Amino acid sequence: MKKLVFIIERSPYLKHFGSIIDEALKQNFPVECWALDGRSNGGSKAYTYLTPEKVPHFDHGQPKIVWFNSSEQMGGEASRTDILAAFATRKKYKTLGTTATNFRYITIQVGIDTFVGATLDELLASDLICVLSPFWLDWAADYYTRSGESRAREKLQEKMIFTGFPFIDGASQVKKLELRKKFGIPKNKNVVLLLPITLKNKRGAWSKFFSATSPVLRSAILVHGGLTESQNYRQYIPWITRGWHDDRLNHSIRAFCDANNGWLVAKGRLKDPVRPSLQKISDQFIYDDEDYPATILQLMSIASVCIHFYSTAALELAYLGVPGICIDRPSPVFPNQEWPPLFHQLWRLNQPNTAYNWPGVNSWLSLPDAFTQLASLKLAQIPIDHLEQTKYIQTYIDQEYQLSNSSGNQSSAKRILDSVTTLQV
Whole-structure pTM over 0.70, yes or no? Predict the structure, then answer.
């Protein structure tokens, strides 16, 4: 039997592939993970590479781990070996550096990055593009058409299939009762999960303005931003006198927790550590220690609510039945792009019945509302509406999902493997 290969450029990719790997092992496929070796790759993102001690445990056996020093080395091996399919989250030639045709190349969707990180032709180099639901065909076609591509929908339809969200399959491994003990969270507390606003290394004046607490410094940043950028920074002048800044927002979130018997867990990333001011008001802060099931998935599974800033975690939260509160923030400035960038125009929406503002599933607050209203918001005011939850999941995550027969919902991983085995090399 030909083997299945999973391209692990960074260890976090395992959270997207984990359930597919487990299902492939269950079906007795020979499975290999081709990993860029964290022991030989340094740099500022060295912590994201896979190392032997970071390889997770799978329920149905363990894949063979093959270590590489570069993508080019992977590409050379792919050209010589007997592969049924190679799975990746990125475009083919960037990942493997090869035009080899002796195997099928499968792209697994990871949010909007799958589309934003590749031109249409680069994406179409894949033999199969597994996306969550038909919504993403519509979204990608609109994005590429507005980017100047012709016949985008027609071309995408030839390669796209709708397979649900394999990342969510990992929730079946999560044992909720054990997690509270694992993380040291009191049984009588409501877990308020916070995915903090990202300010570090964001281009443009706004992040610097929002981080600063000195009125003089904040005024100077606004003046400079107004002179050098196209954004309307005058609207933020009242924020200076009102004391609306990052530290103040943290205290509003803390007040919301206290009003709801909450235990505040700030989920950080090593590339953007939890800031000292947020550490002080959090009950604990946690980083990504595990990739499958992912730390973030474990925390979401025991959360009573999650506060975030346009995180695609909104999709996972909806699937898990956890209310989400999305707080608005201006888009960062991207070099040589209009502002806000096209993909933010199409994705960061606040109209009702969109990903970040779907009554009964996800709530949306402006930053001014977060300063003035969040502290008085009660969890009882934002319950999950199961009918709306089903509509949301069928729109964004899995068109075949049925809440009334959740045990009968076929795993995304199995659907992906079923589709792959029908491809002809």
Answer: yes
